[in-house]
Amino acid sequence: MNSAEESSPRPENGDGEKFYTRDEIQSHNLSKDTWLIIHDKVYDVTAFLEEHPGGEEVLLEQAGGDATESFEDVGHSTDAREMLAQYYIGELHTKDRKKEAKKEVHVTNTRGSSSWTTWLVPAVAAAAVGVVYRLYMLDHKSS
Ligand code: HEM
C-alpha cells in the first residue's frame, strides 16, 4: 500500500504560517477540539479550557468562531495576551477577514501627517484677528 503524501491546499506565507478559512475553524467547536479566532489569528485552546481563569463555558460559547470582541470586552491582562502565543496555530484566511483591520492603518497615517497643521491654521487665524482688533482699537483711541 502506498502511503499517499498529505497535500495541503492551504496557502502559506513566507514564514510558513498556516491559513484557515472560517468554515474550517467553525468545525472545531467541540469541548475536545476547540478553536478560536482572536484578532484574525487562530488558537487551539482545547488544552487551555480547564485552566482558563474565566471558566471553560465562556470559551466554549465562542468555540469555532470569532472571540475578539468578548476577549477585549473582558479587558484581559498583558499576561493573558502573552499566553495566547502558546495556543497559536495559524492565521485567519485573508478572504475571511473583516475590513476593520485596515482602518487602523488609515487612522495612524492621518494622525502622523497632519498633527501640526491641525493646530497651526486656527492659531494663525486667531493671531491675525488679534492684530486687526488691536489696530482697530488704537485707531479709535487716537481719534
Ligand atoms: C486563548 C484565549 C484566552 C486566554 C489566554 C485567556 C486568559 C485569561 C486569563 C489569564 C485570565 C485571568 C485574568 C487576566 O489575567 O486578565 C482570564 C480571565 C477571564 N477571561 Fe479569559 N482568556 C482567553 C479567552 C477568553 C474569552 C474568549 C473570553 C470570553 C468569552 C474570556 C473571558 C474571561 C473572563 C470572564 C475572565 C474572568 C475575569 C475576572 O474574573 O476578572 N477569556 N482569561
Walkthrough of the structure:
By secondary structure, the protein is α+β, with helices and mostly antiparallel strands. Helices cover 50% and strands 13% of the residues. The protein contains 5 helices and 5 strands, in the order E-H-E-E-E-H-H-H-E-H. It has helices at 22-26, 56-62, 68-74, 78-87, 100-142; strands at residues 19-20, 29-30, 33-38, 41-44, 88-92. The protein has a 5-stranded mixed sheet. The chain is elongated, with a radius of gyration of 27 Å. Residues 43, 45, 48, 52-54, 58-59, 62, 67, 70-71, 74, 76-77, 79-80, 83-84, 87 line the site of protoporphyrin IX containing FE. Protoporphyrin IX containing FE binds next to helix 2, helix 3 and helix 4. The chain crosses the membrane at residues 116-136. It is found in: Membrane. Residues 17-93 form the Cytochrome b5 heme-binding domain. Residues 1-22 are annotated as: Disordered. Its main location: membrane.
In terms of DSSP E residues, the strand content is: 5-15%
**Structural class given helices, strands, pairing?**
alpha+beta
Shape verdict = elongated
Low-confidence stretches: 1-9
Helix content: 40-55%
Q: How many strands in all?
A: 5
Strand order of the largest sheet: 1-5-4-3-2
**Bound ligands, each once:** protoporphyrin IX containing FE
| End-to-end separation | 111 Å
Mean pLDDT: 84
Annotation field: number of helices: 5
Supply Rg: 27 Å
Largest sheet: 5 strands, mixed
Secondary-structure element series = EHEEEHHHEH
Protein name: Cytochrome b5 heme-binding domain-containing protein
GO cellular component, one term: membrane
InterPro entries: Cyt_B5-like_heme/steroid-bd, Cyt_B5-like_heme/steroid_sf, Cyt_B5_heme-BS, Cytochrome_b5
Subcellular location: Membrane
